[in-house]
Write a structure and sequence with these properties.
The protein is α/β, with parallel strands linked by helices. It is 38% helix and 17% strand. The chain has 25 helices and 25 strands. A 9-stranded mixed β-sheet has the order 3-2-1-4-5-7-6-8-9. Strands 11-23-19-21 form a 4-stranded antiparallel β-sheet. β16 and β17 form a beta hairpin. α1 packs across α7, α2 packs antiparallel against α7 and α4 crosses α5. It is elongated, with a radius of gyration of 28 Å. It starts with 8 loop residues before the first helix and ends in a 5-residue tail after the last helix.
Length: 620
């Protein structure tokens, strides 16, 4: 393609104008350029050049305009920047939206700044505006071919901070991918300029998010399309918390269509930050609005704003579980994770959660892993622990020996690890009563090891009681495992970290993430104490202010039992009948930690049973 030869905006503009004179449309040229980039996949991924659908851009522009403290009108065009403009679709939508609000296109264009590191993209943006509104309007745009993430682009020095609105779909690119990885010098430059965003395995899009914050006026609005993982990943947690505390997260555009950036193989969302807080329903004055796209009722990608935004189709208002947990707003488990339950404690306040083995230890153990074979008559086998990999951990049981497993490429049926190769710390950890957690799973899966017979391999977690004076009875270890398997903890984990799910739907379970979750302190008491604590839990729920209703809890537990137990409603009724006969301890030790808080309320349990009966296909 001839455009490949363009190294400046002027050259690209001349080539594009020649193509237009030859009969090509601007849309066709933009599409051809994107397709040409697609043939150079490494370059495309390095740039993050996956352009935005016009309908998504239009929806995001409308959401940004809703937040402006002073609505645009005649003679009042907000100063806007798009720091990675691509083919200019966001700029076209911006001018169009303000023109519909009565602002002259020339006035809008005079307040538009657009950057991109690709000269063809900059030329396409100017040409797109020119073909829509004429050369006079296009001439008023301030376009610059510049890398917005460079140490200090010349355009940026005179503009910091100045903009009323910053919009865009910035390039994505994680620190791990071969095409998007970065060297030490680039990382150090990013850390100097973007101290909040350039942490850990940061995505390139997070740098644009902090850049937008740096260039935005105090009461300005930023609206960016971002990878869904950026809303939940630990690398951007400090940046998310800072932006929410100082500017306020106002809206999240929930992009439910998975084909929007199918070629990029990434799920996305869009955020709107800053500006005025909308006057939504009284009960949601401090909440974030979640707007589905495409429209959930019509399936249309193009949405027009409703007269009252809280009444728009599919819009809901949700409170953040945590200032940094933006991804929780899009989770179907959000309502569970945000319940105002009294007496909650962080798991890492009650439990000692640690990695079972480091990568270096895993390789050091390799020579000491062997197949368990019956010892010869009269011979003594060296002391050993049964080695458990992540895939052998199931809810409330360890499937050791049930099926073949692999450890560092070797195949075993019943692998054991010689105790002699363990350090003193690992030996004490392995021989203690504990629970083991799978490090990679669709949901949290935890199994008790009451006798200290197992040792976890790399990619598993070992969980013990934090209080060294506490006696880890078998019943208490089973309760810890039941708590971690329960819907309450699983729901929180998926709400907080579900946006980080891998391609196969699995979630990586880490010590830090698991430790942040909360559970009632009563769940970690000895069996003799839990009944009294459980009996007081339900009245305390209803005295806490923002509380779940009994109908909500009934529906929640009925649904949770079906999901967690992976059985139809009819099969759960027997479990509920057992709860009516047993005390809360019996409910917990049977593996149903998600209902142990409710087991002390027989009336509620009966209501749950009735709801399950309605759902079941069996006789009444």
């Amino acid at each position: 393609m001839a455009l490949r030869a363009a190294t400046t905006v002027t050259q690209a503009a001349e080539l594009l104008q020649a193509a237009v004179r030859g009969g090509a449309s601007v849309d066709a040229l933009a599409l051809a350029w994107q397709l040409d980039l697609a043939t150079r996949d490494d370059q495309r991924r390095r740039r993050g050049a996956f352009y935005t659908p016009a309908s998504l851009a239009a929806t995001l522009v409308e959401q940004a305009l809703e937040q402006l403290p002073h609505p645009p009108g005649v003679g009042n065009a907000p100063r806007v920047l798009e720091p990675a403009c691509g083919a200019g679709v966001m700029i076209l939508c911006w001018i169009d939206a303000l023109e519909r609000r009565g602002v002259a296109p020339g006035d809008v264009a005079a307040a538009v700044h657009a950057w991109d590191s690709d000269p063809v993209a900059v030329a396409l943006t100017r040409l797109s505006v020119e073909r829509r509104w004429g050369p006079e309007v296009a001439a008023l745009l301030t376009l610059c071919c510049v890398d917005a993430l460079a140490p200090d682009p010349s355009e940026g020095r005179s503009l910091r901070p100045a903009f009323d609105v910053i919009i865009g779909n910035p390039p994505f690119g994680n620190a791990i991918g071969q095409a998007t990885g970065r060297g030490q010098a680039e990382r150090e430059a990013h850390q100097l300029r973007f101290p909040l965003a350039a942490r850990g395995a940061y995505d390139k899009a997070s740098l644009f998010l902090e850049l937008a914050d740096q260039l935005l006026d105090d009461d300005g609005v930023l609206a960016l399309v971002l990878p869904l993982s950026l809303l939940a990943g630990p690398a951007a947690a400090a940046l998310r918390a800072e932006l929410h505390d100082r500017r306020g997260l106002r809206a999240v555009l929930h992009v439910t269509s998975v084909s929007v950036f199918a070629e990029a193989q990434v799920h996305v969302a869009a955020v709107v930050i800053g500006g005025a807080r909308l006057a939504g329903p009284a009960s949601t004055s401090d909440a974030v609005r979640v707007v589905p796209w495409p429209d959930p009722l019509t399936g249309d990608e193009a949405r027009r704003p409703a007269k009252r935004i809280e009444a728009a189709p599919g819009v809901v208002f949700r409170r953040l579980v945590d200032p940094a947990a933006w991804g929780s707003l899009l989770s179907p488990w959000h309502d569970v994770a945000s319940l105002a339950v009294p007496g909650l404690v962080r798991l890492d306040e009650r439990l000692d959660i640690r990695a079972s083995a480091a990568a270096a230890e895993a390789y050091a153990w390799q020579a000491s892993v062997r197949e368990l074979v019956p010892a010869a008559h009269g011979a003594a086998s060296p002391p050993a622990f049964r080695l458990v990999v992540s895939g052998s951990i199931e809810p409330m049981r360890i499937d050791w020996g049930a099926r073949p497993t692999r450890y560092l490429g070797a195949r075993f049926q019943r692998p054991v690890l010689d105790a002699a190769c363990l350090s003193a710390t690992r030996l004490q950890q392995a021989s203690s009563p504990k629970a083991l957690v799978a490090g990679l799973s669709a949901v949290i899966e935890c199994a008790p090891d009451e006798s200290g017979a197992f040792v976890g391999a790399v990619a598993t977690l070992t969980v013990m009681l934090r209080d060294p004076a506490a006696e880890a009875s078998p019943a208490l270890i089973r309760r810890v495992a039941a708590v971690l398997n329960g819907v309450w903890v699983r729901a929180q984990y998926l709400a907080m970290w579900g946006a980080l799910r891998l391609g196969g739907g699995s979630v990586q379970v880490s010590r830090d993430k698991l430790g942040q979750l909360r559970a009632p302190a009563a769940w970690f008491l000895e069996p003799s104490q839990v009944a009294d604590a459980g009996a007081a839990a339900i009245p305390a729920l209803h005295a806490a202010g923002r509380v779940p209703t009994e109908a909500f809890l009934t529906e929640l537990v009925a649904r949770a039992l079906e999901l967690a137990a992976d059985r139809p409603a009819a099969a759960c009724i027997g479990l509920l009948d057992g709860m009516l006969r047993d005390d809360p301890v019996g409910a917990v030790e049977s593996g149903r930690a998600d209902v142990c808080l409710l087991a002390a309320a027989p009336a509620l349990t009966l209501a749950i049973r009735a709801r399950l009966r309605e759902r079941s296909a069996g006789p009444p």
